[in-house]
Specification:
The protein is an alpha/beta fold. The chain has one domain: Rossmann fold. It is built from ten helices and seven strands. Strands 3-2-1-4-5-7-6 form a seven-stranded mixed sheet. The longest helix is centred in the C-terminal third of the chain and has 14 residues, at 208-221. The relative contact order is 0.17.
Length: 262
């Protein structure tokens, strides 16, 4: 799930952005030329996850064809569908955006995964899944947007079986984000441990800041093309994000976390 600023007037604030991405060869080119060989083209992520991230996440999730996992904050579904194809496991994608669910469901069908991938509305703190039904859970660059991260971690622990893994990327915020209107998030470990997880790995991802700055600069430079391709609403939102977010990157850190449900 990518979290750029959303047009306030939209019923589903993500719809213009998700729909615009599909129509924009310029956006896809910016992502691909920024991440080069580490760009997970099959996943076509609308975020910052890399091939390296996904391979590591697959290794740590340790799931297979008999298992079911969730992608929380799944967005357009790409990373979760990549994981389902890579591991053979069944996927449940959860997102609060109807546009995300629509896009993700269509992509599952295009990939021939409709029999073992489903997408449904929900939130980190309210997934509507049964206790202990999952063998694993993942998320890419979305958990920081949960209104209450401790409650979100408690919900993820509830739906995971004992010894199941929650593997995710997210951002620490050393100062409040004015752009995203988020309070500081200095360390996810206390919240994960309070929710019943044992944190096995907690590390900064490689080269994240340089790549993000390149990507955001590319979006600013392509404002005219993007406005033509995605429309005024989505283009304005993208431009605002790409112009304002770099000011906060020095006070942030992107991390990959592996947590086991006790």
């Amino acid at each position: 799930m990518s979290h750029v600023p959303h047009p306030d007037t939209a019923v589903d604030r993500y719809a213009a952005l998700y729909d615009g991405y599909v129509k924009s060869p310029t956006l896809r080119r910016i992502w691909a030329t920024t991440y080069l060989n580490d760009y997970p083209a099959e996943a076509e992520p609308y975020g910052f996850v890399t091939q390296t991230d996904l391979r590591r996440m697959a290794q740590e999730l340790a799931i297979g064809p008999q298992d079911t996992f969730a992608d929380l904050g799944c967005g357009r579904g790409g990373p979760g569908l990549w994981m389902a194809r890579q591991t053979g496991a069944s996927l449940i994608g959860i997102d609060a955006s109807p546009a995300a669910i629509r896009h993700a469901t269509a992509r599952a069908s295009e990939l021939g995964l409709q029999d073992r991938a489903r997408f449904q509305l929900g939130e980190f703190a309210s997934t509507n899944l049964a206790d202990g039904m999952l063998d694993g859970a993942m998320s890419t660059d979305a958990l920081l947007f949960a209104p209450d991260i401790l409650v979100a971690c408690q919900e993820i622990a509830r739906i995971l079986r004992a010894d199941g893994y929650f593997v995710f990327t997210s951002f620490e915020l050393f100062k409040a984000s004015i752009h995203f209107q988020l309070a500081p998030i200095q360390d996810y470990r206390p919240m994960l441990e309070a929710a019943g997880f044992s944190v096995e790995h907690y590390e900064e991802t490689s080269d994240w800041e340089r790549r993000m700055r390149l990507l955001l600069a590319g979006i600013v430079a392509e404002e005219v093309n993007l406005r033509r391709e995605v429309g005024d609403v989505a283009a304005a939102s993208l431009h605002q994000w790409a112009s304002n977010r770099p000011k906060e990157l020095a006070d942030a850190r992107r991390v990959l976390i592996v947590a086991r449900r006790k």
